[in-house]
Amino acid sequence: MITTPLLSILKARAKQKYRTLQYPKGNPPPLSDRFLGKPLIASTPCPMDCLLCVSSCPIGAIQKKEFLHLDMGRCLFCGACVEACPNGTIRFSKDFQLATRDRESLVIRQREGSETLDKSIVGSTLWTNISRKFRRSFRLRQVSAGGCNACEADCNVLSTIAWDMGRFGIQFVASPRHADGILVTGPVTENMKVALEKTYQAVPSPKVVIAVGSCAISGGPYKDHPEQKNGVSSLIPVDLFIPGCPPHPLTILEGLLRFLDRI
User: Fold this and answer.
1) Which burial class, exposed, middle or buried, applies to 179 when counting CB atoms under 10 A from its CB (0-12, 13-18, 19+)?
2) What is the span of the domain harbouring residue 176?
3) pLDDT tens-place string over residues 13-52
4) Residue 228 maps to which CATH number?
5) In this structure, are residues 229 and 202 in contact, taking their beta carbons and an 8 Å threshold?
6) For 219, which DSSP code?
7) For the chain, how many structural domains are there in total?
8) Residue 181 contacts residue 171 (beta carbons within 8 Å)
9) pTM score
């Protein structure tokens, strides 16, 4: 005989229905109006040449030599450059597909046009043989190397019922000896340097290193501070860069799936 409390639970479960996102089979979930995705730079030179976008950037992610350069690996996606620019030379799209294997590919150059960033770079060219080995089972040891907990939170949300990255065989594990790679957040502070190196050494080969967020890629707002290492690549080789401050969970998931050739 079904008891009343159990019946209530079953009714509630039936009412909730299926809560996990359909992506990547279905359309991506709707993004907030405040979401800032891949930056776009107008292909024509700025008519005023005021460089307000350069001076407005709090961490120097925008530079100008002959043309404007915007480094997504350093960008905080704060939108200050858009507010400062009177001509709309820089704007942010809703494109969440930002991950890449090549650090240089995170730099958007005005002369090339921002639309030339190759979204397939993670899929077809990134460790093709090795990524196929991890396609059905990919275990990661997460290392918070001095992060503010924003990137960590957006990584952890991928394990919730709404995202459920475990359905793709991707899981965070407690020990690096059980992992296929490490996912690092934070600028790698002096106190975390040895811990990160030991964690990397403990992961069996072949292994993958993923840098998530501006801090892990370049040091973020702490760049060149003496108590941090300006990101992961200063100590160990990085195989996948996922920019953002913090990256949206959808950006992280898309990067992981593209790395595994699941998209």
Assistant:
1) buried
2) 123-259
3) 787 777 788 889 888 888 999 999 999 998 877 766 788 8
4) 3.40.50.12280
5) no
6) -
7) 1
8) no
9) 0.88
